[in-house]
TrEMBL record:
It holds the Pfam family DUF502. It comes from the Bacteria. Keywords: Membrane, Transmembrane, Transmembrane helix. This is Membrane protein. The chain crosses the membrane at residues 21-42, 62-82. It comes from Ciceribacter naphthalenivorans. InterPro entries: COV1-like (IPR007462).
Length: 231
């Protein structure tokens, strides 16, 4: 009878040690696996286009992981450098004029280019803020990522009452690879102080990983939601 608590205590310690080791090893193993898989994926796309005489693996007896990825990064950087001068802009403009003559290709190219320009633009605020909206009904709040202000026809149709509309992305849990593009009034959007990275962690973990928050909340978020009245 006296040995039972000791056995339970020992089993509990073993379980706790196992869970602690799992918490340490699992993220590390997943990170290494994802990184290694990405490197091999990039190499599989780039290496077939490298001439044999310029590929060091043709002279060595072992593969060089990451060589294709490194070469792709150098090539993309070089193309970006050349695209800023007059000759490079002329070549890009001529190539775009050819693509614009292709009915299906021009639609895909223009849409893709617009997305990359919006996301990668240095001064863009796209997906740099996290907020809350009432969804799917009042009193229930959903986490969203702020995309940009509504523009064009959508802004004209939805802003008839004078209130600005904001485009937000509502991603599902736990895999935020798809979701809904929604346009909500700026006054209905509650901006949060957390970063997009913290918002993604909160979303993927289904609310289990909550970012730290201090009681001294900044007033910048409130000012961004409701602009001050003009005098």
């Amino acid at each position: 009878m006296n040995d039972r608590p000791d056995r339970i205590s020992l089993a509990t310690r073993i379980r706790n040690n196992f869970l602690t080791g799992l918490i340490i090893c699992a993220p590390l193993a997943i990170t290494i696996w994802l990184t290694w898989s990405f490197i091999h994926w990039a190499d599989s796309w780039v290496k077939p286009y490298i001439p044999s005489r310029y590929n060091p693996e043709s002279y060595l007896k072992f593969a060089i992981p990451g060589f294709g990825l490194l070469l792709a990064l150098v090539a993309i950087t070089l193309i970006g450098f050349l695209g800023k001068n007059l000759i490079g802009r002329s070549i890009v403009g001529y190539s775009e004029s050819i693509l614009n003559r292709m009915p299906l290709v021009r639609t895909v190219y223009k849409s893709t280019k617009q997305i990359f320009e919006t996301v990668l633009k240095e001064q863009s605020s796209s997906f740099k803020r996290v907020g809350l909206i009432e969804f799917p009904h009042p009193g229930t709040w959903a986490l969203v990522f702020v995309s940009t202000d509504a523009r064009g026809e959508i802004a004209a149709k939805l802003s008839e009452n004078g209130e600005e509309m904001v485009a937000v992305f509502l991603a599902p849990t736990p895999v935020p690879t798809a979701g809904f593009l929604m346009f909500v009034p700026r006054s209905k959007l509650r901006l949060l102080d957390m970063s997009p990275e913290e918002g993604i962690k909160l979303l993927i973990s289904a609310g289990l990983v909550t970012p730290e928050y201090t009681a001294a909340a900044t007033s910048d978020a409130a000012n961004a939601v409701t602009p001050p009245a003009e005098t």
